[in-house]
Specification:
Helix content of chain A: 55-70%
Strand content of chain A: 5-15%
Number of strands of chain A: 3
Structural class of chain A: mainly alpha
Strand order of the largest sheet of chain A: 1-3-2
Distance between the termini of chain A: 37 Å
CATH superfamily of chain A: Winged helix-like DNA-binding domain superfamily/Winged helix DNA-binding domain
Mean pLDDT of chain A: 91
Oligomer: homodimer
Shape of chain A: globular
CATH topology of chain A: Arc Repressor Mutant, subunit A
Largest interface: A-B, 51 and 51 residues
CATH architecture of chain A: Orthogonal Bundle
Radius of gyration of chain A: 19 Å
Largest sheet of chain A: 3 strands, antiparallel
CATH class of chain A: Mainly Alpha
Number of helices of chain A: 6
Chain lengths: 150, 150
């Protein structure tokens, strides 16, 4: 990627390009385990002890129902999750992790942590603090813009 | 969104969540024109004067050929772009903007600029500089990690 400066690029582009790079990195790592970033993200979004209703997974992950269902089918085929009906509400499906799924969840978690730690080691704390401050402010600006729209 | 701090969240999550928020904002705005963010992004990626070969649009936008073709079909149906064969190479398809497409491109460009300007107005310059510095460093770390992988 070309060096990012305020002069050659808009801020939305920078955030998008960075997210795409992170996705590529995660997908490359996940492919070692015949998995994908979305698969790993789903495993991380399921409560490892109690499981999670499938209806709340999509909103939690911020993806559409059709995409979620594709990801869950893949995970079920690989024997990483299982679907069971809720005891309280037969219509509700609970996603829970298999033993293999729990193991993959731990591996994914380690990798995410490792990336996060590398960043914390290589970037001075006060600069990271400013980064978080700026990104919070950007999110506030977005909320304001979307409110005005309505 | 919950306030982002270094304590409650990893950096990949923050970047993803922010990108999703930007997408939502852009899609809401685009829907006013019966369009989508991807449609607007494609219009912005086409050279307004000479047009752009469809084969280079996907890489430029960072999306897969199938997604690109869906977006281009929508834009063609809305009479925003046209497809013509290249004069030099009959197999190559050139995407160019119609008059209506040029107008929509300008509107999209204005909206992106407006968002960028709001950020530059509301966030002090030195903080934004640090933000760009940190995000460059994050991209460097990703490149390093992906290199090691290979």
């Amino acid at each position: 990627m070309t060096k990012i400066t305020k002069e050659n690029i808009t801020i939305d582009y920078v955030i998008r390009a960075t997210w795409i790079s992170i996705q590529k990195m995660y997908n490359e790592e996940a492919s070692t385990f015949d998995s994908t970033m979305s698969g790993a993200f789903a495993l991380l979004s399921v409560d490892p002890k109690k499981g999670t209703p499938s209806s709340s997974l999509g909103p939690k992950m911020g993806i559409a129902a059709t995409s979620l269902s594709r990801v869950l089918n893949e995970l079920e085929k690989s024997n990483l999750i299982k679907r069971t009906s809720s005891l309280e509400d037969k219509r509700s499906i609970i996603i829970s992790l298999t033993k293999k799924g729990l193991k993959m969840r731990d591996i994914s978690k380690e990798y995410v942590k490792d990336f996060h730690n590398t960043i914390e080691e290589e970037i001075p704390k006060e600069k990271l603090d400013t980064f978080y401050e700026v990104i919070n402010k950007i999110n506030e600006i977005i909320i304001e813009k979307r409110k005005k729209k309505k």
